[in-house]
């Protein structure tokens, strides 16, 4: 292992963790100080512009172009020098191998260059542990709790016994929930990704006019590919009779699809609560922004006596603050990675 | 070759496709809801994939481990440019010598291997699907 300075008492030490996230499309960096986010930056075209424009080489990879500017920006916004960073955390997996490797290589080099520890983070654990970021707009669940991670790429039910003691108790068998929203929206002619637009229209519609069937799978499993096909058949059939059917009923169709998905997610959560006997329920991932699921969860507090937790939106989507948060938890418990740690496209807990 | 089949006949169709194909790269053409992912799941099962394949629409490539081999399941549906595919190192995946199952191959036509089995799927009014194997270019 490269020479590092690991202090003896880590528990109460004032630490700064630099977090790097590059598992899919976005390159992101964040600085966290004792659980408080100092900066949380995602690469955008503007960052390219500030640092001299896009490299015009066809095969150059987006993450390679973004990573250095994003880290600079995260340190600048946090108002700290790179020498103040206690350790660097990066997404080890799951994700796209090419994307993961950029974050991993950068982080290993940074750790070696600065002589600080390296921390390897599981992206799916980070979505769950994002709840422990200290922020006025969110509160941390108590252990044990049930976590539902819902995004464009994932739909996962997890029993969380402790920070690093988690068990996947249910997953999607086919499409992710975000994909069900996006593809249904596409069938209705909404621009991709259409999830947020569908949510907006659904709020003005009547969910009872067009009910869609909920796929029957195991009590903790999810399936969404049938819903997409059901929406497709429904739209084809109705459009044959009335070519303007979609336009004339758009809000109600969106409301029907959204309420079907939300009810389905809630059914699975109810099953999970019943099976595990745990009634602390936390959601995460980009689809947590959906107004339907938020309302349903709040109602469950009243009607079912659950305690529910929804993270602040910027910690729901893919972000580096959650990676830095897990990095801090690992730092304080001395779960350091060696520099030969490998990136993993598929990764279990 | 052209086959019309129902969901129940899917396992037999998957087996037949595998035994008739000389290539390890399969390209699946067809509209959303035509049944591309469902057919690929069945073929993967036939090849001995340990777990159910989930959709790679968001991730673009999903990697599955078979006995001593790998299976790459691609979905280029949400891709906006060829550059994006190159950015994720798609050629290293496609030309790795492992199994390739590609949805929405039309989005990356210029990058596709010449030796491949091209399959077109269409949905019929009664819910069955028709599969035709297109000649190699």
Please outline the helices and strands.
The complex is a heterodimer of chains A (349) and B (137).
Chain A: E1 16-21, E2 28-33, E3 36-42, H1 45-50, H2 62-78, E4 87-93, H3 97-114, E5 118-122, H4 123-129, E6 145-150, E7 155-162, E8 165-171, H5 177-187, H6 195-202, H7 225-241, H8 245-276, E9 280-284, H9 291-304, E10 307-309, H10 321-332
Parallel strand pairs in A: 1-4, 4-5, 6-9, 9-10
Antiparallel strand pairs in A: 1-2, 2-3, 6-7, 7-8
Helix pairs in contact in A: 2-3, 4-10, 5-7, 5-8, 6-8, 8-9
Chain B: E1 2-5, H1 10-20, E2 25-29, H2 36-47, E3 61-65, E4 70-75, H3 82-87, H4 90-94, E5 99-103, E6 117-123, E7 129-134
Parallel strand pairs in B: 2-5, 2-6, 4-5
Antiparallel strand pairs in B: 1-7, 3-4, 6-7
> How many structural domains in the coordinates of chain B?
1
| SSE arrangement of chain B, N to C | EHEHEEHHEEE
Q: Mean pLDDT across all residues of chain A, rounded?
A: 91
Largest sheet of chain B: 7 strands, mixed
**Gyration radius over CA of chain A:** 21 Å
Structural class of chain B: alpha/beta
What is the fold named in CATH at topology level of chain B? Rossmann fold
Helix content of chain B: 10-25%
Figure out the total of helices of chain A: 10
Gross geometry of chain A: globular
């Amino acid at each position: 292992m490269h020479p590092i300075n690991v202090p003896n008492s880590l528990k109460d030490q004032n630490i700064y963790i630099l977090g790097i996230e590059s598992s899919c499309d976005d390159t992101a960096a964040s600085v966290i100080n004792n659980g408080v986010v100092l900066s949380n930056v995602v690469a955008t075209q503007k960052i390219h512009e500030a640092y001299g424009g896009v490299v015009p080489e066809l095969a150059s990879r987006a993450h390679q172009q973004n990573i250095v500017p994003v880290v600079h920006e995260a340190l600048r916004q946090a108002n700290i020098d790179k020498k103040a960073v206690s350790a660097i955390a990066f997404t080890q997996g799951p994700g796209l191998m090419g994307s993961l490797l950029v974050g991993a290589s950068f982080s290993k080099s940074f750790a070696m260059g600065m002589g600080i520890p390296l921390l390897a983070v599981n992206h799916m654990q980070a979505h769950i542990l994002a709840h422990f970021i200290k922020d006025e707009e969110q509160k941390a669940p108590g252990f044990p709790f049930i976590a539902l991670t819902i995004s464009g790429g994932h739909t996962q039910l997890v029993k969380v016994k402790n920070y690093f003691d988690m068990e996947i108790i249910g997953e999607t068998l086919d499409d992710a929930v975000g994909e069900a929203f996006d593809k249904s929206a596409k069938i209705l002619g909404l621009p991709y990704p259409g999830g947020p637009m569908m949510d907006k229209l659904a709020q003005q519609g009547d969910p009872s006019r067009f009910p869609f069937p909920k796929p029957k799978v195991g009590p903790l499993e999810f399936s969404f590919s049938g819903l997409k096909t059901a929406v497709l058949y429904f739209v084809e059939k109705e459009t044959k009779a009335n070519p303007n059917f979609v336009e004339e009923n758009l809000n109600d169709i969106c409301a029907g699809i959204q309420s079907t998905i939300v009810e389905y997610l809630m059914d699975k959560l109810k099953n999970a609560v019943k099976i595990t006997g745990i009634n602390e329920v936390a959601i995460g991932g980009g689809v947590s922004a959906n107004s339907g699921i938020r309302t349903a969860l709040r109602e469950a507090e009243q009607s079912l006596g659950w305690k529910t937790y929804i993270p602040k939106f910027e910690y729901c989507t893919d972000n580096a603050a959650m990676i830095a948060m897990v990095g801090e938890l690992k730092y304080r418990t001395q779960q350091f990675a060696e520099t030969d740690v490998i990136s993993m496209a598929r990764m279990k807990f | 070759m052209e086959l019309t089949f129902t969901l129940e006949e899917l396992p037999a169709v998957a087996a037949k496709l595998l035994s008739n194909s000389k290539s390890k790269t399969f390209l699946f053409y067809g509209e959303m809801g035509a049944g591309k992912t469902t057919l690929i799941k069945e073929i993967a099962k036939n090849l001995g994939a340990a777990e159910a394949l989930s959709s790679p629409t968001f991730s673009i490539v999903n990697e599955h481990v078979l006995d001593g081999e790998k299976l790459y399941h691609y979905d280029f549906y949400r891709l906006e440019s060829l550059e994006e595919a190159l950015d994720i190192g798609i050629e290293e995946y496609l030309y790795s010598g492992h199994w390739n199952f590609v949805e929405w191959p039309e989005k990356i036509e210029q990058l596709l291997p010449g030796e491949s089995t091209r399959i077109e799927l269409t949905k019929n009014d009664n819910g069955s699907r028709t599969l035709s194997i297109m000649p190699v270019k």
